[in-house]
Amino acid sequence: MTNLDIILKVIAAVFIYMNLLFLLAISLKKNDIVDIAWGLGFIVIAAISLISMPVFPARMLLMSLLVLIWGLRLAIYIFLRNRGKSEDFRYAQWRKDWGE
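Request: output the structure for the sequence above.
Response:
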């Protein structure tokens, strides 16, 4: 698999991930879930890149592990920080400005 193939796979995966997230945000009427999903998006990128490689060089495994740790830490931190709170005022204002 060429680098271009891997890049195209990653782009497709991120496109699908973000669109599913958009649909979830619309259904929940809570756009600030994107803050939690942001860190997980980096994990999606790292995972697709890693599994698309014909071999797993140690450097790539280490980098993917570090991205996994960082992405999970970010998502968990934001989830815990926002748990039980109303939607971030910026997102609520955007929804109000957009109308129906």
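The chain has a mean pLDDT of 90.
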